Amino acid sequence: MATRTGEAEWTGDVPHGSGRMKVGSGAFEGVYGVGSRMGNEKGTNPEELIGAAHAGCFSMALAAQLTKAGFPPEKIHTTAKVHFDQNDGAWSINTIDLDTTAGIPNITPEAFREQAETAKKTCPVSKALAGVDIKLTAKLL
Predict the structure, then answer these.
(1) At what angle do helices 109-122 and 46-68 cross, to 10 degrees?
(2) Are residues 53 and 25 in the same domain?
């Protein structure tokens, strides 16, 4: 099917350098560096881009699951918190917290939770991140 691209360019050493990341479609381009990755300086970082991709993929997968089950959603909002931590001297992403809320007529909380769990397991980004502990909180509006 489709092949999507992203690219980055880094200039300088890690403590003082900086970079730019952009997506192939041109819809996003941003600067990043140590300050935006490890601190609160202006700019983006790879982890928040992973979070946006995961939240978007999960929300779309959940909408598809719900529609297929006869419960077309009115609205789904998902936040992905990507935990970027140092373990044993190496930086890694060990956990992603998916927090989703949805407006779905005529569905029980149990049926919604089941659909959300299925979407978590089957969305392509979740599958790509199989080595990460993905935790899900799902609430109906």
Answers:
(1) 130
(2) no
- pLDDT, tens digit, for every residue of 17-74? 999 999 999 999 999 999 999 989 999 999 999 999 999 999 999 999 999 999 999 9
Dist CA 12 CA 10 (whole Å): 7
3-class SS letters over 121-140: HHCHHHHHCCCCEEEEEEEE
| Residue 103 in tokens | 């407006």
The pLDDT tens digits of the residues spanning 96-111 come to 999 999 999 999 999 9
The 3-state DSSP class for residue 80 equals strand
Nearest to 94 by CA among 138, 56, 130: 130
Q: Of the candidates 91, 95, 82, which has an alpha carbon nearest to the alpha carbon of residue 14?
A: 91
Domain annotation covers residue 1: no
